[in-house]
Amino acid sequence: MSDYRDRIEALAERAREERRSFSPPADLPAEERALRYLRDGVGEVVAVYVEARTGEYAPLDAAEMAGLERAANDWLELYARCHGREIDAEFTVREVAETVIETRDVVETARLLTGVPDCDRSAPWRAGARNS
After folding, report:
1. Domain hosting residue 125, numbered range
2. What is the pLDDT of residues 63-92, one digit of tens each?
3. Tally of CB atoms within 10 A around 56
């Protein structure tokens, strides 16, 4: 167990609660809501992951990694639902973090990983999401 356990558990619980309480927006796309899921959700997950992996390296145990990954995928699925799409996101937190670092943009990361709104579906980073 690392020093990040409490933050990870809080992020994962918040993501689960958002999924449970999600109601589809009346007007699609719900860009502001989608952006909030990315910044306050995916962005926070990536921040914890990067912080744990840099500086004072703090190994994350299997439960912590699973919590981060489930939270990141929950947030990405919520982002897609704000655009009227259902996806089953199956990305590793490392994939998400590397894409954020590469693009320097959490919105572009979500677009590339989920294909929502529609983008080049042949890109190699698309392997972790399946559209339902």
Report:
1. 5-131
2. 999 999 999 999 999 999 999 999 999 999
3. 7
